[in-house]
C-alpha cells in the first residue's frame, strides 16, 4: 500500500527532530554574507550552525598583519558613502575609517608616455584630461554620454526578461565599445573599466554581457565613489568580530557535499558529519553552490545558471615600503594606464602606522600570461610597472604579497562573478529565488552593490529576515 504524502512528511519531520545535530538554520559558507545571516538569525533567537569548507572564516574578506604592524587586506578593502548597510556594520563594531589617500598628482601611463595630473580619473569622466590628445579624450567622453544614458533605463532589482534587455544581453561589452569609440584611447578607456570595476568580475570586454555592464553601473555606480574610504586595521578583522557572537557554532574545514531538502526540512551532509535544519542558507558564489549535490535536484534554470556564471580572473598584489615614499615626490600613489601588467594601483597606507602600502591587480588576459611565469619573474614584472609609475624606489619593497584568487578552490577567482551574454535574460530569474527551504546569499545575488561588501551584507540580512519570518509563523519542532 502506497504511503500518503502526509505520512511521508511526518516521518521526515520525526527523523529531523531526532537528529541531535538539528538547528533552525544551517548556513553553508562563512564569508561576510553567511556570517551576517547566521548572526542575525541567532540574535532573533534561532539556533544556527555555520559550516565552512576553508580552515578560516571570511571568504573573500581576509587580511593579515605584516611584521611592520601594518594590516593588509588580501581580499576586498574599500567602502563608499552610499554603502549604508556595510557602514552600519562598521559603526556597530566601532571600526574606524579614514579617507583613501589621494592627495597629490595621479600618474597616467599610456603607450609609453607618462603624465601627472590633478583631479579624479579612475574609469570616470571627472577631473582634468590626463595628458592625452584632446581628440582622444573627447572620443571617450562622447561615448561615455551614450553609455551613461543607457544605464538610466533600469528600474530597481535584477534585470528582467524584456525585449530591450534581451537585445542588450545578446551583445558583449566589446561590441558596444567597437561601435561607439573611434580611437585607441577610447577603446582602452572602456576596456579598462571592465577590468577594474567590482561588479564586472573583472572580465575582458569580450566576455561580459553589455546588459550586465549597464545594469551594474546603474546599481553600483563608480560616480558614488565606492573606494572612498579604508579601514583602520583592515576589513579582514570583521569576520572574527561576527564569529565571536556565534557561540562557537562554526565548523571549519568541512566542505558540504550534499543537501537533501523536502517539505519538512533539510539535511546537510559533509565529509565529517550530518546535520538537520528547518532551513539552509547557501552563501557562496553560484558556481561553487552548483558543486553541491541536491536531492531532489534543483530546478533546471538554477542548475543551468550555476554552469554559466564565472568568477573574475584577478590576482591582488600588496607591496609595502618603510614609508609612502611617493608622497615625497608630490604623488598620490594612484596610478593607471595601459602598462604591460598593471592597469591600476592605489595607495592603501594606514596613516597611523607610517608604513607605505600599494595595492594593485593583475587581471583578465594579463593575469593568464602573468600567472604562467616563475615566482621571481612575476614579482619583477609587477615591481617594474610600479617603478614606471612611482620611480625606482618601488623596486625595493619591504614586503611583497600575491593573492592568486583563481587558484583558491573555494573562491575560483575574484573580485566577484559576472554574467556573460545571454545569462541574465535566460537564467537570471533563478539567481536569488529560494528553492523550497534553500535560500541563497552572497554579493553576487545582490541587486544593489553586487561585487562589494555592501552586496554581501544586504543578501545575508535579507536571507535571515525571510527565514526568521517563516520560523516565527510556524510552530517550532521540538527534539524528541
Automatic annotation (TrEMBL):
Please give the name of this protein.
Flavin monoamine oxidase family protein
Q: By its UniProt entry, which PANTHER family does this protein fall under?
A: AMINE OXIDASE (PTHR43563), AMINE OXIDASE [FLAVIN-CONTAINING] B (PTHR43563:SF1)
For this UniProt entry, the molecular function terms from Gene Ontology, in alphabetical order, are: oxidoreductase activity
Please report the organism this UniProt entry assigns to the protein: Pegethrix bostrychoides GSE-TBD4-15B
Tell me its cofactors: FAD
Keywords assigned by UniProt, alphabetized: Oxidoreductase
**Family matches, as InterPro entries:** Amino_oxidase, FAD/NAD-bd_sf, Flavin_amine_oxidase, Flavin_MAO
Q: Does the keyword Oxidoreductase apply?
A: yes
Quick one: which residues bind FAD? 52-53, 256, 444
In this chain the Amine oxidase domain maps to 32-467
Question: Which positions does UniProt annotate for substrate binding?
Answer: 361
State the similarity comment: Belongs to the flavin monoamine oxidase family.
Amino acid at each position: 500500500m502506497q504511503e500518503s504524502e502526509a505520512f511521508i512528511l511526518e516521518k521526515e519531520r520525526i527523523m529531523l527532530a531526532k537528529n541531535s545535530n538539528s538547528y533552525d538554520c544551517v548556513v553553508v559558507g562563512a564569508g561576510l554574507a553567511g556570517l551576517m545571516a547566521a548572526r542575525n538569525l541567532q540574535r532573533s533567537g534561532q539556533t544556527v550552525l555555520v559550516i565552512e569548507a576553508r580552515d578560516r572564516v571570511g571568504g573573500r574578506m581576509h587580511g593579515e598583519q605584516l611584521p611592520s604592524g601594518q594590516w593588509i587586506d588580501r581580499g576586498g578593502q574599500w567602502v563608499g558613502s552610499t554603502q549604508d548597510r556595510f557602514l552600519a556594520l562598521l559603526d556597530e563594531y566601532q571600526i574606524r575609517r579614514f579617507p583613501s589617500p589621494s592627495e597629490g598628482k595621479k600618474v597616467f601611463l599610456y603607450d609609453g608616455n607618462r603624465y601627472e595630473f590633478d583631479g579624479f580619473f579612475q574609469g570616470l569622466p571627472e577631473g582634468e584630461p590626463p595628458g592625452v590628445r584632446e581628440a582622444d579624450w573627447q572620443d571617450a567622453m562622447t561615448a561615455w554620454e551614450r553609455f551613461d544614458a543607457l544605464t538610466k533605463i533600469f528600474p530597481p532589482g535584477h534585470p528582467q526578461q524584456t525585449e530591450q534587455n534581451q537585445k542588450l544581453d545578446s551583445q558583449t561589452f566589446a561590441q558596444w565599445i567597437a561601435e561607439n569609440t573611434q580611437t585607441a584611447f577610447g577603446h582602452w578607456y572602456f576596456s579598462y573599466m571592465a577590468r577594474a570595476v567590482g561588479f564586472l568580475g573583472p572580465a575582458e570586454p569580450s566576455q561580459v554581457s553589455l546588459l550586465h555592464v549597464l545594469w551594474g553601473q546603474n546599481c553600483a555606480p563608480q560616480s558614488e565613489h565606492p573606494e572612498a574610504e579604508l579601514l583602520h586595521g583592515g576589513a579582514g578583522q570583521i569576520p572574527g568580530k561576527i564569529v565571536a557572537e556565534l557561540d562557537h557554532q562554526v565548523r571549519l574545514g568541512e566542505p558540504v557535499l550534499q543537501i537533501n531538502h523536502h517539505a519538512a526540512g533539510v539535511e546537510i551532509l559533509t565529509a565529517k558529519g550530518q546535520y538537520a535544519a528547518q532551513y539552509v542558507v547557501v552563501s557562496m558564489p553560484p558556481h561553487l553552490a552548483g558543486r553541491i549535490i541536491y536531492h531532489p535536484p534543483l530546478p533546471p534554470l538554477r542548475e543551468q545558471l550555476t554552469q554559466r556564471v564565472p568568477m573574475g580572473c584577478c590576482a591582488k598584489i600588496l607591496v609595502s615600503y618603510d614609508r609612502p615614499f611617493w608622497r615625497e615626490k608630490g604623488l598620490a600613489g594612484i596610478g593607471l594606464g595601459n602598462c604591460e601588467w598593471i592597469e591600476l594601483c592605489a595607495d592603501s597606507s594606514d596613516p597611523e602606522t607610517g608604513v607605505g602600502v600599494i595595492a594593485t591587480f593583475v587581471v583578465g588576459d594579463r593575469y593568464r600570461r602573468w600567472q604562467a611565469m616563475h615566482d621571481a619573474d612575476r614579482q619583477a614584472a609587477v615591481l617594474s610597472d610600479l617603478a614606471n609609475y612611482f620611480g625606482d624606489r618601488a623596486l625595493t619593497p619591504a614586503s611583497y604579497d600575491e593573492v592568486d584568487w583563481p587558484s583558491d578552490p573555494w573562491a575560483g577567482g575574484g573580485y566577484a562573478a559576472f554574467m556573460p551574454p545571454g545569462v541574465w535574460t535566460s537564467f537570471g530569474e533563478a539567481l536569488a529565488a529560494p528553492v523550497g527551504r534553500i535560500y541563497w546569499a552572497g554579493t553576487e545575488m545582490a541587486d544593489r552593490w553586487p561585487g562589494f561588501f555592501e552586496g554581501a551584507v544586504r543578501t545575508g540580512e535579507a536571507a535571515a529576515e525571510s527565514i526568521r519570518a517563516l520560523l516565527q509563523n510556524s510552530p517550532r519542532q521540538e527534539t524528541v
